[in-house]
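Hi everyone, sorry if this is the wrong subforum. Our group has a chain we'd like a structural model of before ordering constructs, and none of us has done structure prediction before. Sequence below.
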Amino acid sequence: MFPSKPLGLGKEHLYPYTPNLHSCGYDIGFKFLKVLHFRSVDVTDDVLEYFLSNCPGLERLAVHRTKSLVNVRVGGSSVALKYLVGEHCLHLKSIEICDANLVSFIYKGQEINLVLSNVPFLVEVSISADPTSIDLPFTQLSCCLPQLETLMLDICEVYYNQKRAFPISENLKHLELIVEADHRWALHHLTYFLKAFPCLQRLAVKVDFVHLLLSPLPIVKIENDPEGGVGKVKKASACPHHCLKVVEIIGYRGRESAVKHVLYLIKSLVAPEKIIIDPVQLFEYPVERYPSGIDRGVEVVDEEEEVRDHAMQYLKRKVPSSIEFVCL
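Answer:
Right subforum, don't worry. Here is the predicted structure as tokens:
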């Protein structure tokens, strides 16, 4: 444990369930520190800046669940930092990353002011925030979007602007989206991204059902739900994509909206090779916290089994035989 006084971490700053940080009684050197995780510790701006300035070998930094972090700035002296993660920092207002050698940046929380400048090695970005517009991540990522290879975005409940044209990036190969499957414009959102990333090779769509617990719907039999059938989700014209080979649907449920996502993507891909259906809602049950079905609970596992049966019996029939169909 680190000494509390140099960190500025008194008892009044800690979460009630966080262990107290007692003084070790001796000086601690950070010259060779490479990995640093703060979890449920009230790290202040000054404390974080101290570590960034005094840990020349720091390569990985993660901050989870803190109340005192407001404005974060990374760059300059933090030349070794390659991986930065910030999750659920309750009062965070801004993150500025300038003149840095970051390779990967992950942020999860409320909407913030994100400033990126001169980050030539940044190739992986994940943002799961609460944006008010679907194009907000693109404005904040404009300086590095052309160089990104992997992009992960949460686009649940975003506003739809049919006149918006995203900047085209031909370098992105892997895209992950968390989508609200029942959103009326959900398929139009997918069209945005297919047009923006013409060289995309792998797409993972994590389908979330915001109203599932409030109004559970029965599993839909696809033969009674023809393509383009009526429903909450509006139809969208197919967007031909020549490079996308693999599509993964994560958190799949046999609801009309989820089925429409699969069928829309099949129609849009020119030369698809594989469709992967995964009923486990990994964004709700991450593997590191729920390593097995037992950890997710009997009811959840039973639902997943029902969904697997649905996918194999009904959804597979709609997939051309030339495409490999995998149900995990």
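For your construct planning: The CA atoms of residues 117 and 146 lie 13 Å apart. Residues 298-313 form the longest helix (16 residues).
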